[in-house]
Amino acid sequence: MSRNQSMTVLNPATLNSDENIDETPIYQIQQIYELSKSAFDTWKEKSVKERLSFIRKLKNVMFDRMDEIIEVIANDTGKVKVEAVTADVMPVLDAIAFLEKTAENSLAARRVQTPATFWGKKSYIEYMARGTVLVISPWNYPLQLAMVPVLNALIAGNSVILKPSEVTPLVGKYIEHLFMLAEFPKGLVQVAHGGKDVGAALTREKPDYIFFTGSAATGKKIQEEASKALIPTTLELGGKDPILIFADANLDRAAKGAAWGAFTNSGQVCMSSERIYVEQSIYEEFLEKLQSETLMLKQGTDLNDDIGSMTYRGQIDVMKEQLEEAIAGGARLITGSIPRDWDLSQGLFIPPTIVVDVHQKMKLVQEETFGPVVTVMPFQSEEEAIELANDSIYGLNASVWSKDLKKAKRVVSKLVTGNAVINDVMISVVNHHLPFGGVKHSGIGKYHGKQGIRVFCHEKSVFLDRGKKNTEIQWYPYQNKYPKIRSFLKLLFRKKSKKSSRTS
């Protein structure tokens, strides 16, 4: 038998490599599924309260090992520790708190109204776990974007196979360790390590549900494979999120918010503020404030630094190509540097870069960048701002800045986006009471909120009759029933129609 392939662990902030993690052999994947299905058969019979007891134990393990978790995330991604704790660890703890408060109610059978024509009957909806859920998670927030869907799938009664990103293998390995320490049942949460081949093999094995977070290109491939077996999916994909800043906005706040929205996690966020549109009358003033905020940012990995390194070298090549095309087309950099000046010998650090004099058709404006680069363009009117913001294949999040909240809400209602924020950036994703998901090429489906738990269930509709009557009016025989049914319908719906017209 050949030796397992291994993945090299690279610290992107130092480019040091001193550890390898074995990939999961393809031949083991069928066995992983068999174990998962066996674990599901037992887990689905547990009450929501019993499932919560395991998740609470996981929470306690995370508290006990908080510093260790943060260290692993920082070393594996190159991000600063403040971002590791606020954007990776905290959202997981928030998710657990949300589940503790809402899971039992979200998964309880709920009664719905029954039409008056079926008087005496009852209707309700119940939620049934799907089976084995495959979660494929990305490298930019390797703890949060793996754990949140995994926890929601578990609380809904499913078993889970997680395929974390091969770019951040240490976090994937540590997630496996956390579930072991929390003593989850054998086979309930299994972690398959590896790259595209492992992900493709896991998808081909026909899980009962797929939850994928990553690029639109990979999401399309997963959707295509899933469609062959009619496997339902949730796809959380990329973005090219716009910020619209109107002349009446608080410009100091807007500049600070835009800088954070563009450069947090070194711009490696699906909801990064990659396109800033500014009303012409305050364009130069805002640009000066944004430039000032950006130049104050500190790069490095110390506790007081603001921006860490990039995580994935391949993404830097995408940025270079986009910037080179923009510069050739007349764009200017007012912070940062042109691609040939980047020195990556000491780590994958890219300076936060503001680009002006761009136009809407440039790759830098249309394609996802996923790095610390932002474009700034002026607009003349509210209508033009909306048109520019919507001129994208993506629709994940948007941000509108104005002291006139009526106007801000009006603009938000016209933006083709799955999520929006007013006078702030990105934070809609951290409220677990709000459903989260994109439109257009930014994805299919929603998670978070009650919907985020129920998406991992089959929704079963039930119509109940006490069974005391021997027959129903719509059953055979039909002899002499037509006049009675016709009269009943005229009486029922004519009354409703008259009542409706009186109240309107």
Concise account of the structure shown:
With 504 residues, this protein is an alpha/beta fold. The chain has helices at 29-43, 48-64, 66-77, 81-107, 144-155, 169-181, 196-204, 216-228, 251-263, 283-295, 313-328, 363-366, 382-390, 405-414, 449-454, 482-503, and strands spanning 6-11, 16-22, 110-112, 122-129, 132-136, 159-163, 189-191, 209-213, 233-236, 241-245, 273-279, 332-333, 353-356, 373-379, 394-395, 397-401, 419-422, 439-440, 443-444, 457-464. The protein has 3 domains: 24-237 and 448-459, 3-Layer(aba) Sandwich (Aldehyde Dehydrogenase, Chain A, domain 1), CATH 3.40.605; 241-431, Aldehyde Dehydrogenase, Chain A, domain 2 (3-Layer(aba) Sandwich), CATH 3.40.309; 477-503.
Describe the structure.
- It is a single chain.
- With 504 residues, this protein is of the alpha/beta class.
- It folds into 3 domains: 226 residues, Aldehyde Dehydrogenase, Chain A, domain 1, CATH 3.40.605.10; 191 residues, Aldehyde Dehydrogenase, Chain A, domain 2; 27 residues.
- It contains 16 helices and 20 strands.
- The strands form 5 sheets. It has a 7-stranded mixed sheet with strand order 12-13-14-11-10-16-17, sandwiched between helices. The chain has a 6-stranded mixed sheet with strand order 7-6-5-8-9-19, with helices on both faces.
- The longest helix has 27 residues.
The CATH homologous superfamily of the largest domain is named Aldehyde Dehydrogenase, Chain A, domain 1
Count of individual helical segments? 16
- The largest beta-sheet arranges its strands as 12-13-14-11-10-16-17
* Distance between the amino and carboxyl termini: 77 Å
Q: How much is the average pLDDT?
A: 95
Helical proportion, percent range: 40-55%
